[in-house]
Amino acid sequence: MDTRSEDRDPPVGVPDPYVPADKSLPELTLFSVVAGVALALVFAAGNAYLGLRVGMTVSASIPCAVISMTIMRTFLRRQSILENNMVQTIGSAGECLAAGSIFTIPALFLWQGEWGGPDPDHVMIAIVAAAGGLLGILFTIPLRRSVVIRERDTLPFPEGTACAGILLAGEAGGSRAFPAILGFLVSMVYAYLSDGLKLYPSELDWSLPGFRGTGFGMSLMPALLGVGYIIGLRISVFLFSGAALGWFIVMPAIYIVGSQFPGPLYPATLPMKELEHWGLWSNYIRFIGAGLIATGGIIGVVLSMPMFWRSLMGRFRRGKDPSGAGGGPSEAVAPGPVPRTDRDIPFKVMLSGIVLVTLVLGLAPRVPMGLVGAVITAVLGLALVTVIARIVGLVGASNAPISGMTIAALFIVALLYKFQGGEAVGRTGMIASICSGAVVCAMCGITGDITQDLKTGNILGATPWKQQLGEIIGVLCASVAIGSVLVILHTAWGFGSRQLPAPQATLMKLVVEGVMGESFPAGLVFSGTAACVLLTVLRLPALPIAIGFYLPIHISTPLLIGGGLRLWAARVAQGGAGEGDSLASLRKERGILFASGLIAGEGLIGILFAILAVTDTNIALGPEPLLAGWASTPIAFALLTVCMARVVFGKGLFRRSAGAGAVT
């Protein structure tokens, strides 16, 4: 690695890292690579299944860090905190790459189902996913000193700081990964009994008598409970509100109006009186919700621009003001060798990597983008990566508007292909647009992950170039697995089905079809756009409401239960006499780890079920659930919820709250 840097300006007054620059600990070792890759594959597969079913993924950095800490300290007796950090750096790359792939690439499978012809293969998916991940890492390298070091006072990187805190807490002794492992096992057993053996149904669905056009139900699965706990009650309520708006107000209204006409109303092919609630949802609500989500994502990007501009101007002011009065401590240029904690991958290697990846993306025969399309995608991704790096520094990777940025990129790229004319206007251009969107989505996701990881490393005293290399290893391994996972899941159930609705990919498909002039229900989509603008004007959180509107209410209901459990945990922690912030923080960590285990467990066993379906292996006790009564599933889900509460609260499970708690 380089030992000198021309643009280096280490800041004065920055707290010393936990591991000094002149001290070397094991970091990029065989164990950290193997363990990190294993966790990357686990969380990539789990989040792929979750995202295709629910439309959202969860961060893997903290679970990876805690699981690694448990293995190293409890079983292997290894003591390097930097090795732990490397494991979570590599492991978290899988989750982010999964999000970038599942939000876009399933659209290609949906088109092939409509047009006929072979589905996308593993190689094409791997090339697109790997290219996006690698470009995201390489473009982020020159941003590290700016966003992580120079702007440390304005960009806190909450997830990276929290992950560093957990790793530092582990140095004090002990390990707390048991909740994640327990959640993983409980989730697998629950899913095996419900979806594997079919002992009891995993979803309840009712038509409401006397209320034609609407229905209600619950998909009572462990992953949804875990997601609800992680996102909290506030967001869960907004998601459920959007679902209630669609299922209890808009769907009955559509039915009342449409039933006055004897024939079908586009895009449905059956008369309104013959449609049940699922027919109304799939033919109308999904398209209105697509307009809501697309507009909400774009509005989120637009609203983030002032924040980005202020952050950029603050950086320039601090650079021009040698006294540091421009908004932060002064930064001096120190001559001499670059410290270990400030070494990035060399600039020449970075630039060569960007050129090589762009050439592969543009010249690979399996990816119909062309060299010009690959260059445009890389340039567009660079602009969005610069914005994302600062957004995640303020609000965290989980709250960054990556979907909105992907939609904006898809819109621009599809327009450029359309202006080219010829084949670029038809199916070739549509496929190329989705591939470009997949690359940009992966770039943005990986940028959010690696900047948080570099913040963790900056606090701990890690070596940046080793973290960047570890992230590259995680991306390459996860990209190979993602292709296989998508092909297996699609072969088993098909994207767009009840089991795998692939909501984000369906939305991206609609965006490209709209730009290319394909037939799609523009009136429904633009009505969603108008509704999103109204929500924004009313200062309501448009994006979570839009996602809830787009997804079936069966998904929002268990999310609400998980969010309520999170609120209960906060109230009990605040109400306990003599219980300080440390116990409240421990309970919060227990819950998040258990929830992460629930998500990973169901995701992996879901892929196992897909493999069994592809190979025609039946393990069910019968064609219908053995305990098919309506009470069996709620009882099983209630036991799961009690188990989670017991893990979170410990002995304080039934302690009564002494005061009101805050919604978290």
Fold and architecture overview:
This protein is mainly alpha-helical and 664 residues long. It contains 21 helices and two strands. Strand 1 and strand 2 form a beta hairpin. The protein starts with 29 loop residues before the first helix and ends in a 15-residue tail after the last helix. The N terminus and C terminus are likely disordered.
Question: Strands, helices and their partners?
Answer:
Elements: H1 30-54, H2 61-75, H3 81-102, H4 106-115, H5 122-140, H6 144-150, H7 158-171, H8 178-196, E1 203-207, E2 215-219, H9 222-258, H10 277-320, H11 347-363, H12 370-395, H13 402-420, H14 427-460, H15 464-492, H16 503-516, H17 522-537, H18 542-550, H19 553-575, H20 581-614, H21 632-649
Antiparallel strand pairs: 1-2
Helix pairs in contact: 1-3, 1-15, 1-20, 2-3, 2-7, 3-5, 3-14, 3-15, 4-16, 5-11, 5-12, 5-14, 5-15, 6-14, 7-14, 8-20, 8-21, 9-10, 9-18, 9-19, 9-20, 10-13, 10-16, 10-17, 10-18, 11-12, 12-13, 12-14, 13-14, 13-16, 14-15, 14-16, 15-20, 19-20, 19-21, 20-21
Task: Describe, in short, the structure shown.
This protein has 664 residues and is mainly α. It has 21 helices and 2 strands.
Give short descriptive properties of this protein.
single chain; 664 residues; mainly alpha; two-stranded antiparallel sheet; 2 strands; globular
Tell me what portion of residues adopts beta-strand conformation.
under 5%
Low-confidence spans: 1-13, 318-335, 654-664
The biggest beta sheet reads: 2 strands, antiparallel
Q: Please report the total strand number as a whole number.
A: 2
Q: Spell out the helices and strands N to C.
A: HHHHHHHHEEHHHHHHHHHHHHH
Report the average pLDDT across residues.
80
Question: What is the approximate shape?
Answer: globular
Query: Treating each run of at least 4 consecutive H or I residues as one helix, how many helices?
Result: 21
Radius of gyration: 25 Å
SSE class: mainly alpha
Helix content: 55-70%
